[in-house]
TrEMBL record:
Organism name: Thermococcus waiotapuensis
Keyword field: Cytoplasm, Endonuclease, Hydrolase, Nuclease, tRNA processing
Matches recorded under SUPFAM superfamilies: Rof/RNase P subunit-like
Keyword field contains Magnesium: no
GO cellular component: cytoplasm; ribonuclease P complex
Basic residues bias: start-end ranges: 1-18
Assembly, per entry: Consists of a catalytic RNA component and at least 4-5 protein subunits.
Name under which the protein is recorded: Ribonuclease P protein component 1
Region of interest (Disordered), ranges: 1-22
Catalytic activity: Endonucleolytic cleavage of RNA, removing 5'-extranucleotides from tRNA precursor
InterPro entries: RNase_P/MRP_Rpp29_sf, RNP1, Rof/RNase_P-like, Rpp29/RNP1
Similarity remark: Belongs to the eukaryotic/archaeal RNase P protein component 1 family.
Chief site of localization: cytoplasm
Protein origin, superkingdom: Archaea
Length: 125
């Protein structure tokens, strides 16, 4: 490990320093076989990682227009890889996901919660 003398931080040599930067050039990993099974009815229960997403509306104006692939999903945020890596809060934004079935709009409040716990929620149809 090398020591960055100016900022006084340790850094690993030869590895990217920012989250998601190491896979920025490898978008082929998002083309899974199960991506065609996402529809407007089941997107709330489906895996979002790997889908192409765009922020349509948000309470913060700088978040509007962010688009790219979903890298990671936590309880309250989506990490989107576009021209850079963005962490977008779910509860203040409306997302548009691009799937084989077309473009699907989802309010971020419906996505709040851990991905594995969303399966147990009951949604009104």
């Amino acid at each position: 490990m090398r020591r960055n003398s100016k900022e006084r931080k340790n850094r690993a040599s030869g590895r990217p320093q920012r989250k998601g930067q190491e896979i920025a050039g490898r978008t082929w990993i998002f083309r899974g076989a199960h991506r065609g099974r996402v529809t407007a009815k089941n997107i709330l229960w489906h895996e979002l990682i790997g889908l192409k997403a765009k922020v349509i509306r948000a309470s913060h104006p700088e978040l509007v227009g962010i688009e790219g692939y979903v890298l990671d999903e936590t309880r309250n945020t989506l990490t989107i890889l576009g021209d850079r890596v963005w962490t977008v809060p779910k509860d203040v934004a409306e997302f548009e996901f691009e799937t084989a079935a077309g473009k699907i709009r989802v309010n971020g409040i419906n996505l709040v919660g851990r991905p594995e716990m969303r399966l147990k929620k009951r949604w009104r149809k």
